[in-house]
Amino acid sequence: MKKYLQRLTGKISAYKYWGALAATLICAAAMAFVDNAFLAQEGSLLHNISLGFTTLLKITLAALFGGLFATTFPIHRDSDDQQIVSAAKPFAELRQGGMFIIVSTAAMLAVSVLAGDRVRPSEDLFARFYVSVSALVFVAMIVRQLQWLDVLIQIRRTTFTAQFRIIALVIGILLVVTRVFSVVTKIDTQVISVVGLAVLAMLLLISSSRISWISSFSKDQKWKAFGIAAVAMGISIALMIRQESNEQFVLFMENLLPGAQNFAMFSALLSTIFFLRISFSLGLALPTAAVVDRKINEVRSLAYLSRTISQVYDLERLLGIVTTMIRDVCGATASWVELEDSETKTMKIAAQLKISEQELQILYKDGVLRSVLAQQGAQAIHLEALDEEIAFAPIYPYAKDFAQSLIAVPLTLDNRRIGTLFAAHRDKFIFETEDISLLAAFANNISIAIENVRLFENSLEQERFKREMMLAREMQHKLLPKQHPALTKFDIAAYASPALEVGGDYYDYVKLKNGMNCVIIGDVSGKGISAAFYMAELKGVVLAVAGESESPADALCRINAALKGSLERGSYIAMTAVAIDEEKSELIIARAGHTPIAVSRNGKIHLLQPRGVGVALVEPSKFRNFLEEIRIPMAHKDVCLLFTDGVNEAMNAQQEEFGIEPLHGVLMQKNPEARFVVGEVVRRVSEFAEGMPQHDDMTVIAIVAEHNNTVDEILQDVPEAQVKDNVVIVTG
Question: 578 forms bridges with which residues in the sheet?
């Protein structure tokens, strides 16, 4: 049966108004048929039994229709167990329910007046059908009225209000049964009806006392609710008076539906008692409404602030919420917030509301306001009238139009002042002690929220910087050569590692104008972003000038000419250019302020330091005069090692430098391979550092001769050159 009713209700609800209209007509036709079928033998025993059956059936049909009406047009409300914090919900229910009760009760009164003689007993089928339709509409309005009252009573559900529903249902069923029994037996049951209604009225009076939610209304809401309650109560009283004094109306009720008079009386009584209680409570609450409103606003503001600031991670938006809250809670005409600047450690205006920059400058003129704040230390300031403060005497004539009273509450974190909350009013004696206490409560939450936002922004900034560095490192890595030049008599290997995400070390392989392959290694002064920027610029310059250069020295001169003036003052690039002459088995080296070049030959280690000054330090016209170019004959398995100062200046935990001496062991290896030499240098530097962070960018390049010529054979080809320690020196 339950499933059937749910299915039927669902179908009717789907069609809303049309479904309700169809249900009304069906039930009305059934009631009219019952009246004509069972009232044929008036005065007989069969008539009495038929009348009782008819009464019960009509009541059943009316109850069924009332239930269908209530489910088809349900009243939306939250779960009974939900605690209502805001006044919006109960006020909306009261306004909506009260207005419905006013309209429905007035409609019931109007129907009774307009019905006239049609409500009298008649054999006319149309008249009975009209009466039946009127009865159902009447029942629907009362059901909805009772439904609204139930919602209002249950806004704050308690154990008693939940039990009240059950008690009211039981008494209602008892009154219906009593009415049917009275019709069949002709026994007067008026006493039972009166007692039942009295019990319900008493229970309702107790239940209606549980309306503490009225105190949460604002002053404006209280006045509106008082007016709605008064009108609803007046109309309900009018309905009860009409039922007691107008026989025509009583006859109308009885012809509509047996027991309808009690049903209507019951709803009118409930409405009267409930709205009388509401009117009484609202009347008592109105004189103190302004004070209560302020307290409610304070509590709501604190709750809103606590809820909101925990969800805001933007400092500007957070301070906008804070300034608005300060102004609203304290009733100020202007508000602003000072915060400590993390870099300068000074207080600066971080946000302001309803006060201009010019007005703030007046308050802070000659350090007046700051001196007052300094005197108070970590204590809040309450200035009721600025004209009574000696410190403000110089600026008061200029500030009186926008600030005559002022409060200031410090923002502290870990016993350290990080800012101040300000509220100002253009009138005197506006702020109270409660305002300072409230702002002090705000200040604790605001301080934590500001710190959280700053930490969040710092973490975002760090994450963004990290991503940018990774991207920059990727791009810088792409600037380095992807493969070594194809050589027949020499083997080359290289390694580069920045100290930070990006660095200023650079190496590349280019072809000179004469077709020789040239190895270029450079070290931009400094580290990090700026060094990486210059490294990228150097890459472009090298590629532009290499093809026009006749020698390593010429290439360095052209690079210096291109970069002089483009680097910051004091910045320079230490470089070494090594051209590989495979035909003569020589290395041609020019050095511009770079680290020494280490060369192993015949069991000896040579540290070559040709003259030269860093790129971009000397004017192009003078740069060549400082530059020296040398030729190094390379025999089989001779090694030339190029490295930046990140190798020799690497430090361990004892702050000791790696130096150059440890490189000798690497260079003295028999039958070395370029890849092995580079890897061994990197390994030894890492072991020496003992896990200490890399101090500087590190680049290592090894050039190993792979031919069978001896040094003496090679030197025979350069008789005109100056030979010293198997090194051919060509000065510029």
Answer: 519, 589
Single-letter code of the amino acid located at 344: T
CA dist 679 and 662 (Å) reads 14
As a whole number, mean pLDDT of residues 227-255 equals 69
pTM of the full structure: 0.43
Supply 149's token pair.
């009252």
Q: Using an 8 Å Cβ cutoff, are 603 and 639 in contact?
A: no
Q: What is the C-alpha separation between 594 and 574, in angstroms, rounded?
A: 5
Q: How far apart are CA 23 and CA 9, in angstroms?
A: 11
Tell me if residue 418 falls in helix, strand or coil. Answer: strand
Contacts of 642 (CB under 8 A, 6+ apart): 507, 519, 521, 576, 578, 597, 699, 700, 701, 702, 703
Q: 639-643 and 381-383 as β-strands: parallel, antiparallel, unpaired?
A: unpaired
Top-ranked range on mean pLDDT: pick from 436-440, 452-456, 463-467, 696-700: 696-700
Query: Which is nearest to 94 in space by CA: 267, 234, 275?
Result: 275
Is there a contact between 494 and 484 (Cβ–Cβ < 8 Å)?
Answer: yes
Instruction: State the Rg of the chain over Cα.
Output: 49
Tokens 């430098």 -> residue: 657
Return the closest-CA partner of residue 284 out of 210, 179, 214. Answer: 214
Question: Which domains, from first to last, does the chain contain?
Answer: 99-291 (no CATH), 310-458 (3.30.450.40), 480-731 (3.60.40.10)
Has residue 211 got a pLDDT over 90? no
Q: Give the orientation angle of helix 219-245 with respect to helix 247-256, to 10 degrees.
A: 90
- Of 661, 677, 680, residue with least CA distance to 607: 661
**Does 79 have pLDDT greater than 50?**
no
Report the phi/psi class of residue 414: left, alpha or beta, with left for phi > 0 and alpha for psi in -120 to 50.
left
Q: Kindly state the tokens that stand for 303.
A: 């709750």
164-182 pLDDT, tens digit each:
667 777 777 777 677 666 6
Query: CA-CA-CA-CA torsion for 384, 390, 391, 397, nearest 10 degrees?
Result: 80
What is the C-alpha separation between 174 and 509, in angstroms, rounded?
A: 106
Q: Between the CA of residue 116 and those of 246, 248, 436, 444, what are the distances in Å? A: 13, 8, 69, 72
Q: What contacts 92, CB < 8 A, 6 or more positions away?
A: none
Sheet holding 573-581, edge to edge: 505-511, 517-524, 573-581, 586-592, 628-633, 727-731, 722-724
